């Protein structure tokens, strides 16, 4: 494995769960500092209810100020989000399905089946409009309400999403409870069951197992990962969720392993400073 794609989720996952609500210009400043690092893919925000996630208000205004829309994705929870994505000519959307009813209800007020039904038309409509689609398969290992999630059940859900022609499936450890053995089991069986599918992984670093889980996924043949500058992040609706795996830790580890990312670590540390100043938070990554 010599070329890894990193998708930076700081401007969305990183900012959605902190007390301070950044202005559009501050969010823009963070995105610009990340672009300077050479990172190719950035999730810049979400179109969700401003009552549910105040920090993501005005994502449309933010998009209007961005230069290179091809590099960005936006998270959408429903059809209304897709309509906004179309208006703003978003090239890639990230839908989200929490695989347990309790967590999905907390996150987007639907059962798993209701979301699957809606995703069928959202994913179809997106591809008709030339929008690339991803779907987060959240709480794929452990749910804060229902405990351990069965891997064969997750495989079946992934199969349905692939039947709906999603372009990429993002396996997400929302509360950072997975261990490398569980990651190896699920990612190996998904890769073997769905050979043509594009998979990526999204790890939260609650137990400091994010890098170990990345290594496990690399061994299972995964070459695309989400991470977040400064280890910010967390889902506001998942108790015990904490920050994402820090981008600087991920890039640092891959560099030590002589794996190319195209990202400049020094510039990433500058972006980390920008994130720290904007959020007024003590950040979590260790590679600085
Ligand atoms: P609801 O109350 O069932 O929906 O919420 P509703 O249709 O009744 O709408 C409620 C209000 O939201 C209405 O406004 C709608 O217009 C508005 P009001 O009439 O009250 O003024 N609304 C919207 N506004 C903007 N954009 C939209 C939209 N849809 C409705 N797309 C809803 C359902 C999905 C809206 C709500 O639950 C919600 O917004 N949830 C946000 C969930 C979220 O952002 N979670 C965090 C991201 S997921 C995550 O972090 C996990 C991830 O990182 C991977 C991992 O780690 O596992 C991706
Ligand atoms: Mg997340």
For the structure shown, list the relevant keywords.
288 residues, alpha/beta, two-stranded antiparallel ribbon, binds 3-hydroxy-3-methylglutaryl-coenzyme A, binds magnesium ion
Question: Can you characterise this structure?
Answer:
The protein has 288 residues and is α/β, with parallel strands linked by helices. Helices cover 42% and strands 16% of the residues. It is built from eleven helices and ten strands. It has helices at residues 10-16, 24-35, 59-64, 79-87, 101-108, 112-128, 151-163, 180-193, 210-219, 247-256, 265-279; strands spanning 5-8, 41-46, 72-75, 92-98, 132-138, 142-143, 147-148, 168-173, 199-203, 224-227. Strands 1-2-3-4-5-8-9-10 form an eight-stranded parallel beta barrel, surrounded by eight helices. Helix 4 (79-87) links the parallel strand 3 and strand 4 (92-98). The protein binds 3-hydroxy-3-methylglutaryl-coenzyme A and magnesium ion.
Task: Give the ligands present.
Answer: 3-hydroxy-3-methylglutaryl-coenzyme A, magnesium ion
Low-confidence runs of at least 5 consecutive residues? none
Beta-strand share of residues: 15-25%
- What is the end-to-end distance? 25 Å
Major beta sheet, specifics?
8 strands, parallel, barrel
What sequence of helices (H) and strands (E) makes up the elements? Answer: EHHEHEHEHHEEEHEHEHEHH
The helix count comes to 11
Computed Rg: 17 Å
Strand order, largest beta sheet? 1-2-3-4-5-8-9-10
**Backbone shape:** globular
Number of strands: 10
Helices and strands: which structural class?
Answer: alpha/beta
- Please, what is the average pLDDT? 96
The amount of helix comes to 40-55%
